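Repro:
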Amino acid sequence: MFILESYIKFFTRILDVMGVSDRKEFWPVFLTNSIIMTLLQVMSSQVSEVFGLISYVFGAIIIVPTITLGIRRLHDIHKSGWNMLLHLIPVFGTIYLIALWAQPGDLSNVDKTLN
């Protein structure tokens, strides 16, 4: 039930880039999406190309909410949402972002993040 609640927040806050998301809201969705995409890619190469098409459709559906979720997670640790551009640096940028997302957040000082 916890993952379902996280997904409901994930899709209801689809364009919210000014708020914050704690680790409890971020990680279930991020890991579930990663697992689903990996399984679809493996099944595409091993079973049928139809899974590749499903993978593209799934990716298109989750790309915007995933970006906004990452931005909100960065706001929770008092980092700028522009840090999401670190994904453009192969391997190291993604590893650095995962390390940032793993840090505990502070929801008591939300206003400082937004200024």
